[in-house]
């Protein structure tokens, strides 16, 4: 696999882990031939300006997690940019759209997650 980078959560209108002050970020990052050194997640507003950056921590060989402070407005469209840094000094950026909106109680709520 080459540059496998996926945002697991948060996702628009789906699973979000939040304690009302922070939102948890979970990513899947893997490259068969390269060692992942660090992963950062940056929250971008609709103009592409960075609002917050979080250094994610490795939870397993593939999973990296961290937290953002929740933006005050809960009806905004954002992007989450993942920055993956490899041991050979290369870097990959991948952007994911995220609509921060209140999750309906009709959706399943994740109680816990473990890799």
Overall description:
The protein has 115 residues and is mostly beta strands. The protein has no helices and seven strands. The chain has strands at residues 4-9, 22-30, 36-44, 50-58, 63-69, 76-86, 91-100. The chain has a seven-stranded antiparallel beta sheet with strand order 1-2-5-4-3-6-7, with no helix packed on it. The two termini are 20 Å apart.
**Low-confidence sequence ranges:** none
The N- and C-terminal alpha carbons lie at a distance of 20 Å
Q: What's the overall geometry?
A: globular
**Order of SSEs:** EEEEEEE
Strand order of the largest sheet: 1-2-5-4-3-6-7
Q: What is the tally of beta strands?
A: 7
Q: Taking all residues together, what is the mean pLDDT?
A: 82
Any idea what the radius of gyration is? Answer: 14 Å
Percentage of residues in strands: over 45%
What's the tally of helices?
0
What about the largest sheet?
Answer: 7 strands, antiparallel
Please bin the fraction of helical residues. under 10%
What is the SS-derived class? mainly beta
């Amino acid at each position: 696999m080459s540059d496998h980078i996926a945002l697991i959560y948060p996702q628009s209108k789906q699973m979000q882990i939040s304690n009302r002050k922070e939102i948890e970020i979970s990513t899947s990052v893997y490259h068969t031939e390269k060692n992942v050194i660090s992963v950062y997640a940056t929250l971008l507003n609709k103009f592409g300006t960075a609002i917050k950056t979080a250094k994610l921590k490795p939870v397993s060989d593939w999973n990296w997690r961290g937290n953002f402070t929740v933006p005050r407005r809960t009806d905004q469209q954002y992007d989450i940019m993942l920055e993956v840094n490899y041991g050979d000094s290369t870097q990959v950026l991948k952007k994911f759209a995220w609509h921060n909106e209140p999750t309906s109680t009709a959706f399943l709520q994740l109680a816990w997650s473990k890799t």
